[in-house]
Amino acid sequence: xxxxxxxxxxxxxxxxxxxxxxxxxxxxxxxxxxxxxxxxxxxxxxxxxxxxxxxxxxxxxxxxxxxxxxxxxxxxxxxxxxxxxxxxxxxxxxxxxxxxxxxxxxxxxxxxxxxxxxxxxxxxxxxxxxxxxxxxxxxxxxxxxxxxxxxxxxxxxxxxxxxxxxxxxxxxxxxxxxxxxxxxxxxxxxxxxxxxxxxxxxxxxxxxxxxxxxxxxxxxxxxxxxxxxxxxxxxxxxxxxxxxxxxxxxxxxxxxxxxxxxxxxxxxxxxxxxxxxxxxxxxxxxxx
Length: 288
Ligand code: CU1
Ligand code: CU1
What we know:
Elements: E1 3-5, H1 13-28, H2 31-41, H3 60-78, H4 156-164, H5 181-186, H6 199-207, H7 221-239, H8 275-278, E2 285-287
Bound molecules: copper (I) ion (2 copies).
């Protein structure tokens, strides 16, 4: 039986407690930091040589889908009733309501150093030391909405623009792809600074702190953000029933993207799975 991923605002107090406790236990077991390490290791951008799998590439969606499945399995080994909830930022746009409450993720960071001081992941609670980071900070940081230079969360309209694109992805298959559902959703826009951050990228920036950069997995909101992103892939498939993951075949020898991206039937490192095999997960989970 497929299990259900729910909107985080609909979780009961018991469901919230079990989700938080499972995360803390996965962290205590040392498994959580493996996820942070993997995400840092696969944070390859356009400017670097080699295969890009997690970001700035067509496999942005299947890579994070498999990554979420792995985390969810770790959580369900602790408590089989737990699934990863999603945060719908087009509807829940308030920095003090779910998921930013004391019974879920805690709130924004303090002014001086952005350190999160409320909720179960606050450094003072002792359960969430950052061991894998791209800075020396050992505490969770956030700056919801960016106090100094305010930024708005993306809107329903921004999401619709991505969902309306009937093509999965387009050449040159990177952060400069101007069309295609994948980059419209991943959110590398044209221009500089805040106007260029769309959808997924803009949400990372809005949360701030560790969510900006390769160590973003250190903030448990990462999973809720990516569950909502993952849900958009399912919605896009329903809207465009004949559309598939692209490219269907690898770029030819001599193409600048040859060996740099994963085609539909190629293995998606670090897993032994292809984008093709991840397009339909309805037997594993569904969204409520
Ligand atoms: Cu990522
Ligand atoms: Cu992300």
